[in-house]
């Protein structure tokens, strides 16, 4: 009897030890959601991040990517980050609906090129915008890219702002994008990216505006006649976590994710530049008529949006001035 009791006790200790070992080596799953479709810059960027991060994490954790709005719209994923039901997301324009000052990236023709954006990242995003995001419960890990935005539609080529008069145009959620296109004479409506193809196909919307990678990967070339190269806004994308959930991860995992987010940025920029050239040719080959817009005319029509932003979002207005200063002579 005593011998049997000893065997049972030893077995119990073995089970407990095995459980502790399993717990010690339990792999943390880090879900990364984004709205980009197959072949989009978001997909390319997220997959490269996951590849590098998983090599570095080893058995400490695993990044699993969910694209094509599988985790919901940008707004829904931002809510999930706050609630801790999603670890990472890749928001872009929607950040201006969360922190007003991020609306600076809704200002037309603010960012001249990627070298200018690197300066803005260093001297505006990290010292000023990232802490504002933390106050709202978000932790920005890396500044990536959505890209330079252009307009597609089924009515006419867009050469000057007046060509947008009355056009039903889908925009992402962000008050300043709506205000900008209202100033140009369009009829803008915010809509989740996952809903846009059908809206264009059925005529609910005449057109939309997006970087070429989102246009092509969303197959808008199948339901749009005209692409006008306006380059009206450059939108960064932010690899973002919910602050509380992120800080609950093991410190080593936090460090690996943060460093990898920054290390992957050059790959993102290189991929963005390459895709811009490749996809323009593919969109033309699909039968879409492409034209270069009169950017000077759009810049002239944008003055009022800058003035209103400066009045309504004073801290954002100061950051816009800083960004303009950083681009002097570029």
Automatic annotation (TrEMBL):
GO biological process: transmembrane transport
Key words of the record: Signal, Transport
Entries under Pfam families matching the protein: DctP
Segment forming the signal sequence: 1-26
Keyword Transport part of the UniProt annotation: yes
A GO CC annotation given for this chain: outer membrane-bounded periplasmic space
InterPro entries documented for this protein: DctP_fam (IPR018389), TRAP_DctP (IPR004682), TRAP_DctP_sf (IPR038404)
CDD domains in the record: PBP2_TRAP_Siap_TeaA_like (cd13603)
NCBIfam families according to UniProt: dctP, TRAP_S1
UniProt family annotation: Belongs to the bacterial solute-binding protein 7 family.
Name under which the protein is recorded: C4-dicarboxylate ABC transporter
């Amino acid at each position: 009897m005593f011998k049997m009791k000893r065997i049972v006790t030893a077995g119990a200790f073995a089970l407990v030890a095995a459980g502790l070992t399993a717990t010690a080596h339990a792999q943390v799953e880090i879900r990364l959601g984004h709205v980009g479709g197959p072949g989009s810059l978001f997909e390319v960027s997220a997959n490269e991040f996951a590849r590098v991060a998983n090599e570095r994490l080893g058995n400490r954790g695993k990044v699993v990517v969910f694209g094509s709005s599988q985790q919901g719209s940008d707004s829904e994923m931002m809510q999930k980050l706050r609630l801790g039901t999603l670890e990472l997301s890749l928001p872009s324009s929607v950040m201006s609906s969360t922190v007003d000052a991020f609306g600076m990236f809704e200002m037309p023709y603010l960012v001249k090129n990627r070298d200018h954006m690197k300066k803005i990242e260093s001297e505006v995003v990290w010292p000023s915008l990232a802490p504002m995001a933390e106050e709202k419960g978000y932790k920005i890990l890396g500044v990536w890219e959505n890209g330079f935005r252009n307009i597609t539609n089924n009515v006419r080529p867009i050469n000057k702002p007046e060509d947008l008069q009355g056009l039903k145009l889908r925009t992402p959620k962000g008050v300043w994008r709506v205000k900008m296109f209202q100033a140009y004479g369009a009829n803008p409506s915010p809509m989740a990216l996952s809903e846009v193809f059908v809206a264009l196909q059925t005529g609910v919307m005449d057109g939309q505006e997006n970087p070429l990678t989102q246009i092509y990967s969303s197959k808008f070339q199948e339901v749009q006649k005209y692409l006008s190269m306006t380059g009206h806004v450059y939108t960064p994308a932010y690899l973002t976590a919910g602050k509380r959930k992120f800080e609950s991860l093991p410190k080593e995992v936090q460090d690996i994710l943060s460093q990898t987010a920054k290390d992957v940025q050059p790959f993102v920029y290189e991929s963005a530049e390459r895709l811009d050239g490749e996809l323009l040719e593919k969109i033309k080959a699909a039968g879409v008529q492409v034209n270069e817009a009169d950017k000077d005319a759009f810049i002239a029509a944008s003055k009022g949006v800058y003035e209103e932003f400066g009045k309504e979002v004073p801290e954002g207005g100061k950051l816009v001035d800083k960004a303009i200063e950083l681009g002097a002579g570029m």
